[in-house]
């Protein structure tokens, strides 16, 4: 199961609500319905808290690896751009198979494209 940013925000609100509800329930036992098990609520909430303590460092580690992967990819991208520009120049001079290579690479070029080209 994956949550988007909005889903994560809702979960954080839920955790805050559960925490505060538990605090009020333990401090105001007269308001707790007889069919509600506050001890079971605490057991479940503690399990969620233990999972959070495990998950937070793992999430940071995953983010670190994701950032490292993106940074590592920047080096071959620079080299690919050098090759792309060389092929582009060769294509303009009609050298060998450069036109086909340029057309193939230009469809994958990572730059943003303009929606409407100026005339």
Give your account of this protein's structure.
The protein has 119 residues and is an all-alpha fold. Helix content is 73%, strand content 0%. The chain is built from three helices and no strands. The chain has helices spanning 5-27, 38-92, 98-106. Helix 1 packs antiparallel against helix 2 (38-92) and helix 2 (38-92) runs antiparallel to helix 3. It is rod-shaped, with a radius of gyration of 28 Å.
Sheet-strand content, in percent, reads under 5%
Instruction: Give the mean pLDDT.
Output: 88
Structural class: mainly alpha
Number of extended strands: 0
Helix content: over 70%
Question: What is the makeup of the main sheet?
Answer: none
Distance between the termini: 48 Å
Low-confidence stretches: none
Tally of DSSP helical segments: 3
Series of H and E elements: HHH
What is the overall silhouette?
Answer: rod-shaped
| Alpha-carbon Rg, integer | 28 Å
Features:
119 residues; mainly alpha; rod-shaped; 73% helix; 0% strand
Helix and strand arrangement:
Blueprint: H1 5-27, H2 38-92, H3 98-106
Gist?
By secondary structure, the protein is an all-alpha fold.
């Amino acid at each position: 199961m994956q949550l988007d940013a909005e889903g994560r925000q809702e979960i954080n609100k839920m955790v805050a609500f559960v925490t505060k509800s538990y605090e009020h329930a333990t401090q105001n036992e007269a308001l707790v319905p007889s069919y509600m098990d506050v001890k079971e609520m605490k057991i479940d909430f503690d399990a969620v808290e233990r999972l959070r303590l495990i998950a937070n460092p793992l999430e940071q580690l995953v983010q670190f690896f994701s950032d490292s992967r993106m940074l590592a990819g920047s080096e071959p991208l620079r080299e690919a751009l050098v090759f792309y520009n060389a092929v582009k120049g060769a294509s303009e001079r009609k050298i060998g198979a450069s036109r086909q290579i340029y057309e193939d690479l230009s469809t994958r070029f990572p730059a943003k494209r303009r929606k409407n080209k100026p005339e």
